[in-house]
Prior knowledge:
The structure holds 2 protein chains of 2 kinds. Chain A is mainly α. Chain A has helices at 7-18, 35-60, 69-83, 85-90, 99-102, 109-143, 146-155, 164-197, 210-237, 243-274, 279-287, 291-315, 320-346, 372-392, 397-406, and strands at 21-22, 358-359. By secondary structure, chain B is α+β, with helices and mostly antiparallel strands. Chain B has helices spanning 3-27, 61-70, 133-137, 163-167, 189-192, 199-203, 220-227; strands at residues 47-52, 81-89, 94-98, 116-125, 143-145, 151-153, 174-176, 181-183, 209-213, 230-231, 243-246. Chain B is 25% helix and 21% strand. Chain B is elongated, with a radius of gyration of 23 Å.
Amino acid sequence: MSGAIPDSLNEQLGHQLSQVVGFIYPNEVETQWAILIVVYPYLTGIVAGAFILASLVKVFNVVEVQPIYRLALLTALSFMLVAGMPLQLHLGHPERAYEIFFTPQPTSAMAMFGFVYLWYLLGILLIEIWFEYRHQLVLMARASRGVLKGIYGALSLFSKDVSPEALAFDHKASKLITIIGIPSAFLLHGYVGFIFGSVKANPWWGSVLMPIVFLMSAIVSGIAMVMFLYILLSLVRNEKLDMRCLDKIGLFLLVAIIVDFALEALDYIHRLYQSEESIGILTQLVSSKLFLSLIVVQLLLGMLLPLLILVLVRSVRLNDDFRRLLYFTTSLLILVGIFSMRWNVVIGGQLYSKSLRGLMAYKMEITGIESLLTALALLALPFIILTVLFRLLPPRWMESRSMATAN
Amino acid sequence: MNKRDFLKDAILFFPAAATLQALAPAAEGKAEPANVPADYDATKHWYGMGVDVDKCIGCNRCVEACKAENNVPTEPFFFRTWIERYQIHENGETKVECISTRAGLPEQAEPEDPTVVRTFFVPKLCNQCAHPPCVQVCPVGATFQTQDGVVLVDEKRCIGCRYCIQACPYGARYLNPRTKTADKCTFCYHRITEGLLPACVEVCPTQARIFGDLKGKADRLVRFHRVNQISVLKPDLNTEPKVLYAQLDGEVR
């Protein structure tokens, strides 16, 4: 039981205590959920959003978006594989994390999230990708030698059948999984919103709109991420983009932002109009501690400016290169804006006292487990995984092969 | 089934059954308090605490006793109980301060402020809610309510996710930096099950804290409840606190 408290923690808490404004409960000096818990809903949101964009192709037959179908799926998988890591790392006892699966508390939103996460990863995403790539994997296993042949053989689960019936079945199966996948993706990120929205002790979080606001912002961030990657890849490979596809993604992005904006606006209007006990401290919070991250970055730069640009692109005739530049800028702005939104929810909810009488501070550590460096590493990891996946499962291998045989 | 098959099945069955048997208590998801005397019957009690706000003189001895008794880190960021001082000014403004985070006693008495019309102290601690949000959110059932109504944390099971700290409306929980698990007031469970009083109640020089059993007919707490006008903190959240305040000002949250 005994043992000294680490100096770094003492120093951090001492600094945060010196920044307190007004009165707070003494146990509130420490920021319980820090930067890693900001990263977690950010990553999960991109997964859900990218998957929903991909499902447009399969379920709603939006043919224009076909070129990014595989990109969107692999993006979802790359971010999904990392999404659980910030949670794991922030635990006081990471070695006991398995308890969530073995002895879950049915009334706990967090415990149930573990199952939602696993269901989505194992029940939806991996199976969908497997059916999508099975044909290619069989052919790749045939075409390659040595270790690679083994790897592709194993990835295709040693299936060999590429008869038209088998391929038709793949197609049907992947469509079915996508249909189940859409509500699952909604569930995945809606649930993340519920983890916060169900905390009645915290009026900044405890809102019935939270799951749906999280979901819409997830869709926005997922579409923006796929758009960003699509443009980036074309630049890296020095290839021409399919502008029809990009314009279509831009349209979906515009619609998603409008819905997201409407929901968030509704949340704020509702709070202001109802003007409950917490309104005084929350107004103070937004106008001081969150002004830059909420009003400037999240709202103006991350939402209104992209909205303006997307409307402009649709209403004025612009050449392809300029449109591409605008889309690229928009996607980046949105990705920063949504990160800011996660920050404002997670950290913002811990910057005011539950006594409603004071404001706290959060000093982010640069190194260590719960730190800026870890957060940056976790944000970079999906891109590394995506690069590996691209090498392993080239999204356009089939096309290039059929072209090669045609030549 | 022949003899050979039966034996084969039996060889598999018994170790499997024994393993399941061993896992069963863990899988049930309910922890039981450790170190309770064998003759203690939790079903016969329903503990609570009364706080007579008018009697508290803000001496902070309860806080010191609690930290010593329960090995709470001495740093001013971790408290199982603490004292708040309220000053109500002429213009209706309220100034609140936590006197338990002060390092030592002030050298001089503070000069009297003529605009202060009323001042009082409020001891705070875990409200041992009958309807505890912390228990509801714990993903692994590490925090639980005993049959006598005390909310405890099993530090061998807690994974340190801090969800319960977020869910507590009263700021009564903290993450113990030594055990890396959630921690809070236990009503000194190790003492009350032995028939002793919680440390804070024991040392209070003015008897501002009254510990008792709401199931007991002639209990001091039951009498306290009967003769005083009682309030609880944040009643609108429906947590049903069992820390009952007498003479509590509406300013206190």
